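Subject: two folds for Thursday's group meeting

Dear M.,

Sorry for the delay on this. The cluster queue was jammed most of the week, so I only got both jobs back this morning. I'm pasting them in the order they finished. Each block is the input sequence followed by the predicted structure tokens. Could you check whether the formatting survives your parser before we put anything on slides? The first protein is the one we discussed after the seminar.
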Amino acid sequence: MLEKLKLSTETRRDAALALGALAGGALLGWLTVAPHLQSPALVARLGGYVLPVAFAAFLVALSLHRPVAAVALWLLAAPYSRYAGLDFSFGAGVPDVTLTRWFVAWLMLLLAVQAARGRRRLDRLTAADAAYLLFAVAMFVSAPRSHWGAVTALQAVFDVYLVPFLALYALRQLVADRRDLGLIALALLLMGMGLAFLVIREQVTGEVLFYAKQSLPYSRSFRKVVSLMGNAAPMGVTAALTLALPLMLAAQAFRSRRWAALALLAVGLGFVAVGAFMTYNRASWLGLVVTLATFVVLRPAARRLLLPPLAVAGVLAALFWSSLVSSPVVTERLLEERSVDYRTTAAELSVAIAQQEPLLGVGFSNFGVEAARRYGWDPAGRLDQWAAAHNSYLYVLVSAGLLAFLPYAAWIALLAWGWLQRWRRGLTEPNGLLREGLLDALAAGLAMFLTYFLASATFDNAETPIMNLVFYVGWGAVWGATRGLGRR
């Protein structure tokens, strides 16, 4: 048995080295040859294959050596893959093999092979998993009736709902301890810093990066950020979601008095928070408040770390209260009513449409089409831009009826119940150091849970695959790191 295991380890290491050499050789060759090619079309075409193949080989090699490190690298690259030439594009009529699609499929294959060879024991599917799969099936059933067309809608459901769930399941298996969780936390922090940079840059310069759209006004004083994701809400909420796990690391560094690590984490967290704030989106602000409040309430070390700067902020707010309440941040964004009126109307029409089609809904993403057809409500006045429900729960209800909404609601409730069970068990852990680490991780998970599901009531998460991915990966990582609590 030992000889067989040794051979398996050596074979895996050799495969990883070979794939890594392939990736490095392909990139080096491309950098050497590309400047000498005369045809721009040829350069673009070859680049469309060399770069994704080389990056894919490197990710596969890294995943054979340390899967969690490969996941971390994937997280950093995923938001930019379509712009950086990391997706496989085969032309019109053939679905792209995006970085996220193939990498999540590869993780599932890797887990299946390891389980078949007896090297890994996979967690059993839970009641929450069953509820989610029922929800996903219902959304797939609704796709052929979408105004997008069956093929486009099916791909959207796959990317927005199924792929993130598979990533969640994979992370539950791959993240084994606090070290793995810390690596995911650092990857999320770097992702959040990248998003914050794009937000701050666009607010200051007005230049849009990665997205074929002009900068838009949010109000008289602020821009509506569209870089990368096309909308301020997913940019800000995604940035807010990346804060929880790094904040866990900061609390642990504070508790163990690792001041250099704490200083670096504080700079990164502050930068991400500024970026989320500068989206001037209320759901993003809510995510910041929820994350901070969760740690202040639940974790003593985080409370000691956060309360002094929060107290200083409170004193400054009190001293400059009159200027604060009359500032554009409050008058133009916090107290802005047009979006509230829009959402109220959208909610009323969503309920009315759902009452007419309660069981199966009217088809994936068909709210705007049906609101215009049945009630003449078309605020955009454009055939290519239908009204959005701006509420993920009503979006599901209208798209696929109670057949999807009930299992989706059950999934959320079961996630919350599972978290509560683990929190209670964590409180009884006799090892003090281990107990604190487990509770820190669970607090981060709760902060992400509240941020994601509260924000989902303010816009359609079906339009935000990266935001979904961040939550599902973060939740899966927390669940993997606290796995022992679920088996007591």
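Second protein, same layout:
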Amino acid sequence: MDRRFHSAQKGSAEQVITVVSGLPRSGTSLMMQMLAAGGLEPLTDGRRGADASNPRGYFEWEKVKTLPQQPNCIAEAEGKAVKVISSLLPSLPAAFHYKVIFLERSLTEVVASQACMIQKLGAQASALAPEAMERALHAHLKQLKAALRSRREMSILWVEHQDVLRDPQRVCEGLQSFLAVALNLPAMIAQVDPSLYRQREANLLPNNRELDVSL
């Protein structure tokens, strides 16, 4: 886990909004599940239930999609944890104090997992080839990280997806330190199930990436 982060202005626990972010299929649902088990209240609406791609649920809040039009809706997340997809992070208003947990995962695995989920949903697949999709995601992340450097109201912790699976105790200890709150670490660690890690880069075949689902 890369524990480097830039810090923001201080705020009380009640004022802080904990944001779990990353690309789709980067482990954000698992992180939300871990934080909830640790004792941090999640902001969710239950509209999107568990399925084969995320058997333990998505922990999503549909209203977050309105951030570009209604940025102050995020006030409902004060003192809680909320999942915000990476592309919506720039829409978070500067009037609040955020602690952002950003999940990073191999882009090869992300693209493969996204393709598999789309296939299972019966939705139309992306017109981009996997390699082109990886380049587009890489460009998005580069641009996003540059934009976030100037967001002084945000403290950001970068967490490697593989670290969560390989050493959950160290990751959870880092999360507790970063969030500066007491968490139930054993309960958080118990949420990590490596058997759900099915889109492993080492196992992806060059010409067939739609192998299985993952966290």
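Two things I noticed about the second structure. Strands lie at 16-22, 81-83, 97-104, 154-160. The chain is about 30% helix and 10% strand.

Cheers,
T.
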